[in-house]
Amino acid sequence: MAESLLRSTTISISKMSSSLCFSSSATLLPSSSTRRPTSLSLSPTSSLKCFRPLPSLSFHQNNQILHQGRRTSLVRVNSNVARTAITCFASDPAQLKGAREDIKELLKSNFSHPIMVRLGWHDAGTYNKNIAEFPQRGGANGSLRYEIELKHAANAGLVNALKFLQPIKEKYSGVSYADLFQLASATAIEEAGGPKIPMKYGRVDVSAPEQCPEEGRLPDAGPPSPADHLRDVFYRMGLSDKEIVALSGAHTLGRSRPDRSGWGKPETKYTKHGPGAPGGQSWTAQWLKFDNSYFKDIKERRDEDLLVLPTDAALFDDPSFKVHAEKYAVDQDAFFKDYAEAHAKLSNLGSKFDPPEGFSIDDAVPEKFVAAKYSSGKRELSEEMKKKIRAEYQAVGGSPDKPLTSNYFLNIIIFIAVLAILTSLLGN
Question: Phi/psi of residue 261, each to 5°?
Answer without folding.
Answer: -110, -15
